[in-house]
Amino acid sequence: MEKQLHLNLLASRPPMAGGFQSSSKMKMGPGRKRDFSPLPWSQYFETMEDVVVENENGKDIFRIYCSGSHGPVLLLLHGGGHSALSWAVFTAIICSRINCRVVAMDLRAHGDTKVKNPEDLSADTMAKDIGKVVEALYGDNPPPIMLIGHSMGGAIAVHTATANHVPSLLGLCVIDVVEGTAMDALNSMQNFLRSRPKTFKSLENAIEWSVKSGQIRNIESARVSMGGQVKRCEESTSSSGVSNSIGEGIIEEEEDEEVEEESNKKRAKEDDPETKKESIFTWRVELSKTEKYWEGWFKGLSALFLTSPVPKLLLLAGVDRLDKDLTIGQMQGKFQMQVLPQCGHAVHEDAPEKVADALATFMVRHKFTEFKEGYLC
To answer: Whole-prediction pTM value?
Structure first.
């Protein structure tokens, strides 16, 4: 069961082994000064735009980030609670490997996407969103598209593919989401979500927590993607929730003498009224309120994945993720699988180069594209 609990299919579950404490308070450790300042999206993507989609209730606006000018489109779908920015580092790398275009989108109720009905996170609605965005971008003649999704986004990618919402679909890549393990993990999801800090003193504190808790094991990825997971609180810091801030959790832990002075300065700065007024952050998405949709995302996923007629790639953080249907399908050669060890659940953030290499090799092997001139695979 511990392995199942470790795999969080909504938001990456911090590992509790290997020296990390199970509470929100974490010791910073002496002499380690790492840069947790946020990085801009423009360092990784070429453009950002809002795609307007007309529907019966009015207009929905989907935020997308793009790179590349020719080749097949890699349409990237993030996990629950995350945003398109989780693909930032991966995008810069994959665009250096192969001829391709990247479109990373904020799914409904996530990131900077604004929809009329943000409470509807059903697999059917979200899959239709993908089709509508593709139509808005490319009209009736879309280019070849490779759907790539992580966790919840992987499930939505499978639903989108099997419902034929993307008629020009080339292939399907699913990252660290397997029906059997996902369904087992749902029972512990609410407990995990309650264990996370509710607020952060600053965006830097949120980035620091994501790295030190193990949610994202690549500090560069965390610095660009956490801004898509958290937002500034609208309420003042006198509210009761602020006492659970991870900023307090980090600095109030027993400290070594050599870092005590630095921590005192940090504490004084955070106690400043102006700093407090501007610097409280909370999660953009209240994942606990989406529980009624969890089963619909993952139930029957393995069968849907296996029946999709396009070439398929499954990338996993551990081979123990495979359920019975996928094990049989893998032995029958119905899809290609690759295990990337030493990764957490956020595989594409923890090891963006390995994921880019695996995907580039897959796409070139299937003659979807070519390696860029001068790139040595």
So the answer is: 0.83
